Amino acid sequence: MEYSNLRRQIIFMKKNLFDQGYLDEQFNQLEELQDESSPNFVEEVAALFFKDSSRLLTNIEQAIDKYPQDFYRLDSLVQQLKGSGSSIGALRMKNECSVFKANCNDRNLEGCRRSLQKMKREHATLKQKLESYFQLLRQVGPRDYAVSSRK
């Protein structure tokens, strides 16, 4: 009985992540790659994303402070973050990266600063939500790998 309740919670949580725009279809595609030989594949990919994206966010913040008029540098850093976010389906992160890039194109430093703060919040929120999701998946165990919540 507890197993089915956990499964329902997992499906509900994942559906909410999609409905609230945190994740896109790329996340489902990652889950489809997970199997018995790599039961924690998605969690490992997400951990790598959060490690890499934390570093990139720090680099962006430092670049804004050190090179505030180097919009090419800022754009390049944000493009890396956007690609990293896209690879795991981090939709809100990816969208905010697009806003940041538009601010770079407009040479709008204050817009870049605001966008960076939003990216940091989205990053922290997604990390917390995915950690909760993976924690539930670990409780269920390796019986099922990809959790379908497609609409």
From TrEMBL:
One of its GO terms (biological process) is phosphorelay signal transduction system. It comes from the Eukaryota. Residues 109-136 form a coiled coil. It is found in: Cytoplasm, Cytosol; Nucleus. Keywords: Coiled coil, Cytokinin signaling pathway, Two-component regulatory system. Residues 38-133 form the HPt domain. GO terms for cellular component: cytosol; nucleus. PROSITE patterns: HPT (PS50894). GO terms for molecular function: histidine phosphotransfer kinase activity; protein histidine kinase binding. Its main location: cytoplasm. It holds the Pfam family Hpt. The keyword Nucleotidyltransferase does not apply. Histidine-containing phosphotransfer domain (HPt) contains an active histidine that mediates the phosphotransfer. Functions as a two-component phosphorelay mediator between cytokinin sensor histidine kinases and response regulators (B-type ARRs). Plays an important role in propagating cytokinin signal transduction. This is Histidine-containing phosphotransfer protein. It comes from Oryza glaberrima.
